[in-house]
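Researcher: Please predict.
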Amino acid sequence: MIRFLILLLAASPLFAQKFTLEHEGKKRKYTVYLPAGFNPAVKHPLVLNFHGLGGNPRQQQKYSRMNEVADKEGFVVIYPYGDNHYWNTGAMNKPYVNGRDDVGFINKILDKAIQEYNISPDSIYASGLSLGGYFSYRLACELGNRISAIASVGGVMSDSTNKYCQSARPIPVLQIHGTKDPIVKYEGFKRSMPVEKTVAFWTKRNSCSHSDTVLLPDISVKDKTTASLIKFNCNSKAPVWFLKIQNGGHTWPGSKINYLFLGKTSKDFNASELIWEFFSQFSLNSLPIKHKSR
């Protein structure tokens, strides 16, 4: 009966349900989106999609339009809610090591998702906007045993994540960032690494050498942006992609929502589609284990 109800509800492309779980003595919230035609008898990939500072799962669903891609490709999306609208990343003036355990919260979500939605443990990915992107980097460092690849849109590594990163394996990384981002500045700022140094951190860790650059077609001249996709070739089989948006702001490319105060939104590509194109290449078991650097 339960499986029948899940299938019935999932037939709607708008099926998203809110849940809570107990963590550190508090009820933490998250939203699960099951793609159209969801079949609980089949293993599904999972994409974690984290909102930015001040955001929430509902806003992130509308802004990223990740659910539309999930419907086409058949993966589950979970939108966790950062209590008080933030993630513990070191980018804010809050304790990093001994502060709120957001990583443990995600661990619990993954345990439940694998059990309840038949998620493939080898196909779990993390993505996020702004502070959610920062948090994806922290997960790459601390949940490398569960996360197959990450993508950050308008978010970089904090100085704390850089300092304490304990990734036990190379992690495929996709960084999407605008050169005119007024919030998470391309050149870096307090407690945050510059974009290119963030990329360099992972190209070094993943044993990358040369790169190939492809200029994306300028489909929308009106958006006044252009985009280049830089693909680093890595001996670890964990590549690093850097999507550099000239004149781009602190935005989610391809979104139908334009926040003018955040800068220009590229319409030359759909970030959610590109993220899934990147993620779909990797599974956890396809990546080699290496010793920790610390």
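Model: The chain is about 25% helix and 25% strand.
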